[in-house]
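Need residues for this backbone.
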């Protein structure tokens, strides 16, 4: 028997992307993302500006999502929204909007944990995307997060390790900034790395026990390295940008892969799913492919638009919770710190 058609409107506003999506069950009908360009000139996200931009974007983005899906708001079955974690001022915009709309339409409200959504994005039904089997390991890597999670079923997740300081995307972006590259520098490091020698320069890897990560030391060692080199040769960066990017990326990938290997070893789970903006990195993609061949892992990467912050991933969690009847009361408040499973 096929499930009855349910239409979920989902809203994501945890950081600097205002996004709205409409899902029909597990299928995405629309997924609109307004990326806030204003932060580029500051070299990073400015929370106050993000909150203001969400306020400007939220109504047109929701309208666009409904129009693209060709769904009238009266047809909606529920409204899902990101409750946290994220920037408080940003979360408040999506939370208040979702609460008022659900109240106005008299339909259920469903709160979603953003980190769980990055993981459950793998369960969006999308032609070419295959879905991991439970239990699996999920590594979420983005500008705001770096986590390895054991996923036993959609609602039983255990964080095995996470970053103690910077997120991996920040490590990419901050390294890029030291090389004079514009924000966000991750994709540029990836681009130049393809042309360079990953073994040209040696950067120390952090000594962090277990499955936690640390990236702030790497940034400092790159800073000292570049300061020393440019003192001797002011054109050092321009002349060696490909090799520097390749070596930085290689170090970051080594850190990620070592932790993933350890997680596989500790849990015996060889299903490995990754998500988050850094999953776009061509290096991590080829390292995972390689692990399929050499280590017998089965790896999963969602379509790119479901990797970066987006409302479709909030919608899939909304749909799964809708089926369980797991609804949220109107007195719910946004939660800037919101651990998985809490
Ligand atoms: O998921 P996302 O869009 O937003 C956050 O939740 O942070 O991730 C953005 C991060 C940025 O740090 C960006 O530099 C990084 O993902 N990124 C990449 C690549 N594409 C995006 N990092 C390395 N290589 C890439 N190709
Ligand atoms: Zn995110």
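Answer:
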């Amino acid at each position: 028997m096929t499930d009855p058609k349910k239409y979920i409107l989902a809203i994501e506003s945890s950081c600097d992307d205002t996004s709205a999506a409409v899902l029909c069950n597990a299928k995405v009908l629309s997924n609109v993302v307004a990326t806030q360009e204003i932060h580029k000139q500051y070299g990073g996200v400015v929370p106050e500006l993000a909150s203001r931009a969400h306020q400007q974007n939220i109504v047109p983005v929701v309208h666009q999502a409904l129009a693209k899906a060709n769904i009238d708001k009266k047809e909606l079955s529920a409204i899902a929204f990101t409750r946290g974690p994220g920037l408080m001022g940003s979360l408040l915009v999506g939370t208040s909007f979702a609460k008022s709309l659900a109240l106005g339409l008299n339909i259920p409200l469903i709160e979603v944990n953003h980190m769980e959504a990055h993981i459950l994005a793998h369960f969006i039904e999308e032609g070419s995307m295959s879905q991991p089997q439970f239990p699996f390991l999920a590594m979420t890597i983005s500008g705001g997060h770096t986590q390895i999670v054991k996923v036993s079923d959609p609602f039983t997740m255990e964080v095995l390790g996470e970053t103690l300081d910077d997120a991996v995307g920040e490590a990419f972006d901050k390294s890029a900034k030291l090389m004079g590259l514009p924000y966000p520098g991750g994709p540029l490091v990836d681009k130049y790395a393809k042309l360079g020698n990953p073994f040209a320069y040696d950067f120390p890897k952090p000594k962090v026990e277990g499955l936690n990560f640390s990236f702030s030391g790497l940034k400092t060692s790159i800073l000292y390295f570049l300061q020393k080199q440019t003192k001797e040769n002011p054109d050092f960066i321009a002349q060696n940008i490909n090799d520097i990017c390749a070596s930085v990326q290689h170090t970051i990938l080594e850190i990620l892969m070592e932790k993933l290997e350890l997680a596989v070893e500790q849990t015996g789970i060889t299903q490995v799913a990754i998500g988050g903006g850094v999953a776009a990195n061509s290096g991590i993609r080829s390292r995972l492919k390689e692990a399929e061949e050499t280590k017998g892992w089965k790896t999963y990467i969602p379509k790119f638009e479901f990797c970066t912050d987006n409302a479709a991933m909030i919608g899939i969690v909304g749909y799964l919770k809708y089926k369980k009847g797991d609804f949220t009361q109107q007195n719910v408040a946004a939660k800037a710190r919101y651990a998985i499973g809490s």
